[in-house]
Amino acid sequence: MALIQETDYGTPIRITDKIVTLIIDGEAVSVPAGTSVMAAAMMRGTQIPKLCATDSLEAFGSCRLCLVEIEGRRGTPASCTTPVEEGMVVNTQTERLADLRRGVMELYISDHPLDCLTCSANGNCELQDMAGAVGLREVRYGYGGANHLDAPKDTSNPYFTFEDSKCIVCSRCVRACEEVQGTFALTIQGRGFDSRVSPGGMDFFGSECVSCGACVQACPTATLNEKSIIALGQPEHSVITTCAYCGVGCSFKAEMKGNTVVRMVPYKGGKANEGHSCVKGRFAWGYATHKDRITKPMIRKKITDPWQEVSWKEAVDYAAGEFKRIQAQYGRDAVGGITSSRCTNEETFLVQKLVRAGFGNNNVDTCARVCHSPTGYGLKTTLGTSAGTQDFASVDDADVIVVIGANPTDGHPVFASRMKRRLRQGARLIVVDPRRIDLVKSPHIQADYHLPLKPGTNVGMINAIAHVIVTEGLVNEDYVRERCDLGDFESWARFIADERHSPEAVEDLTGVPAADVRNAARLYATGGNAAIYYGLGVTEHSQGSTMVMGMANLAMATGNIGKPGAGVNPLRGQNNVQGSCDMGSFPHEFSGYRHVSDDATRQMFEAFWGVPLQGDPGLRIPNMLDEAMAGAFKGLYIQGEDIAQSDPDTQHVTAGLAAMECIVIQDIFLNETAKYAHVFLPGSSFLEKDGTFTNAERRINRVRKVMPPLGGLADWEVTMALSNALGFAMHYKHPSEIMDEIARLTPSFAGVSYDKLDHLGSIQWPCNDAAPNGTPMMHVDRFVRGKGKFMITEFVPTEERTGPRFPLILTTGRILSQYNVGAQTRRTENSRWHEEDVLEIHPFDAENRGVLDGDLVSLESRSGEIALRAQISERMQPGVVYTTFHHAKTGANVITTDYSDWATNCPEYKVTAVQVRRTNRPSDWQARFFEEDFALKRIGPDVDAAE
Length: 947
Ligand code: SF4
Ligand code: SF4
Ligand code: SF4
Ligand code: FES
Known about the structure:
Blueprint: E1 19-24, E2 27-32, H1 37-43, E3 69-70, E4 89-91, H2 95-109, H3 126-133, E5 153-154, E6 160-163, H4 172-181, E7 187-189, E8 196-198, H5 214-218, E9 224-226, H6 227-232, E10 237-242, E11 251-257, E12 260-266, H7 279-283, E13 298-299, E14 308-309, H8 312-330, E15 335-339, H9 345-359, E16 364-366, H10 373-382, E17 400-404, H11 408-411, H12 413-424, E18 428-432, E19 441-442, E20 445-446, E21 449-451, H13 458-471, H14 477-483, H15 486-497, H16 507-510, H17 514-526, E22 530-534, H18 536-539, H19 544-557, E23 568-570, H20 577-582, E24 589-590, E25 594-595, H21 599-609, H22 621-629, E26 635-639, H23 643-646, H24 650-658, E27 662-667, E28 679-682, E29 691-694, E30 699-703, H25 715-726, H26 735-745, H27 754-760, E31 762-764, E32 808-813, E33 838-841, H28 843-848, E34 856-861, E35 865-872, E36 880-884, H29 892-895, E37 912-918, H30 924-936, H31 943-946
Parallel strand pairs: 1-4, 15-16, 15-26, 17-18, 17-22, 18-21, 22-23, 26-27, 27-28, 32-36, 33-35
Antiparallel strand pairs: 1-2, 3-4, 5-6, 6-9, 7-8, 10-11, 11-12, 13-14, 13-28, 19-20, 24-25, 29-30, 30-31, 32-37, 34-35, 34-37
The site of one iron/sulfur cluster has 14 residues, from helix 4 and helix 5.
């Protein structure tokens, strides 16, 4: 295996049907119009020397190394800034050019520390390469004059250094931060010889920098360099794989030395990220080899016993024996399983197969229950399929972007960068969110409308927007007539036109001025292609499914589905939340969203799996916990999930877990749920296994093994062993065989195979005979369900109410540097940006309570109480407080309630009535947490060693 080197064309590749032919060094070359001479030369295999150009950035023309001669033109133009023209005759290699280029290089080298042999970039440095390419043999100027060789080094960023003495001021980093990332953290300060790169006059750690790594990627020298490269040296080989954090699904080259990852480099060929990354995927992979990894199977009879390390066989046999005992004693339905949105499609498919075929019931659920289950329900009901409608590239064609209940710059950073680029190009922006998220105002971006609604009033807001569209004659009638069910539309239009839905009528409810709602609605309906992007601020409500349908209604009414730049687009939280749903993780559905009661589908699975299957839906996670409390549910197999931390109303969850007799956890760390477990099966990180993840745009990406599983078995092998021990045989030799089975049993995956994925890079489902290479955009000529179905979306207030005892509303979210329950990111340097969860509170509410910034405050709801530090913030509106849930010790879910979406049971994380008071001690729950944390995670002496 070798290092994968991607071609750098020097300037961006243009895509157009217009082709221009020119002559380069005597040979005809045909390229798209708008291509630079530099890129055209590279397309025929001629690399013109360059330093300030790279194909992720627009040409800048500052280094003057890429000079060429063009017949009929005077001078020597820069090839990076010169577009091709029909019939142009270009010479890239002449003596005059060679002299000029050597002269330029001589100047650069005369102000460069020539420590190449000990430089961390030795062998991977464009300056070094260019010195060789232009044939530089001597530097006449010496080091006597003014230079920058003593410039200080900035090592403040946890992941990369800035060694100013090596900087050639090509400004690639500055432009990467602007054009690719959109953060504008870097500038060139000073003029002429004094020009230096600066992160705003401070060090990197204290600056606006979000550590996306784009500047490091762009830097042609060792000036910006990964600390891992400095520590470990240059990599030897690389493997293309997929980030295991969020639902953007970025592709990376895992660059390795033996079995050690040296760095993760975003892959330009990755269709979800096109060479960009965020701090998590790019740098926060060290958790995979963290000392906390549990790599030996463990069992214990009681949760108060210390863990005992045992062999894989002993652990698997013990788990299978317990599940069989429980089923014999309490009945077939007393056990179940939870699949993970962090694991691969293949692993998820196996877990649900084990439950349906091995346990013989449908008690399988997934963590998507607590995030995007309303997306599945709402989009399937209205449009016919449980997935987003567009690919990410579609945003490049959007004229109006509506962001509802999502915070893309923190939650989906790489897509946010793409969205911000489109906004800088002039797309209009509407943000619907209780909190003033970064997108509302960031460098060169200002939302046209921010509608800061009160949490819990989403449906009132979407109805008000729809009311304006219907009553002001803004419906796209041709589209509706042609594409939608007219009867349903007319009922909906009558419903929505009612005055009680007008922006004025709901102004008190939502807290948003009616005029703003009217103007935003007009902009959405008339501003051109309009795209809705939404997140958990939509779904995690008692009316999550209603809100998803409300957004689909809006998009259908305005003709904004089935074309580029439009659509209803869920921003999926976890890396494989789409995939875990696709794979049949819900208790009522087989893979491909087919109901278990559908006889034909069930019979097909029965025939293939060779066992009878149940036709009634099984238990959802909350029902499993309820049944456990009632004494009827006793055993649970959980792969890659930490429901004790991630699910709402922690005390109810832990009481349910504590009531069970056998909990089997398969994970990479001893998580919070493991406190209640009897068997621990070591999981494998994404670096240790083969498989696929499906991202938010339905894109199936390959996950490739770059190192052996630390525990000896990949997750799919563990599930297989457990199934075999239960008596339901599974015999896969490689995850590709599992994908072949998925393809055979799932129409939307019918054309998917590892061979095709390797060939195409990635595939967006549906992929079948009708769409052999996949489907970037859904519902193009007709909706998947036939006619689009408008649904009545009556606003029903949540039962969670504020009052004198709990006057504030708590809403929750995430932060860029941490991820979900923090199990991975807390074990990386990312914690330096977010060491603890804090409570954001508006100055008015803080002052009323005598709370100062940084004070410890008690946060109490009807469910419980926790303590955390206050951060006074004008991002909040008065009456609303906000926190994250990345740290187990915070216990944010101790105070969330068990109210949930009426259709899917997705918890209402976003609305909890609370009170905030100053305090000087942790809550009782937190005090107990620290005691139990120690006691319940105790690992006893190694049994084998003791013997
Ligand atoms: S790491 Fe990203 S945000 Fe930070 S300076 Fe570099 S490009 Fe800008
Ligand atoms: S830090 Fe690197 S990319 Fe930035 S100006 Fe200096 S050499 Fe160029
Ligand atoms: S945007 Fe998401 S998928 Fe991409 S690198 Fe960041 S966490 Fe990973
Ligand atoms: S690469 Fe063209 S001017 Fe620098």
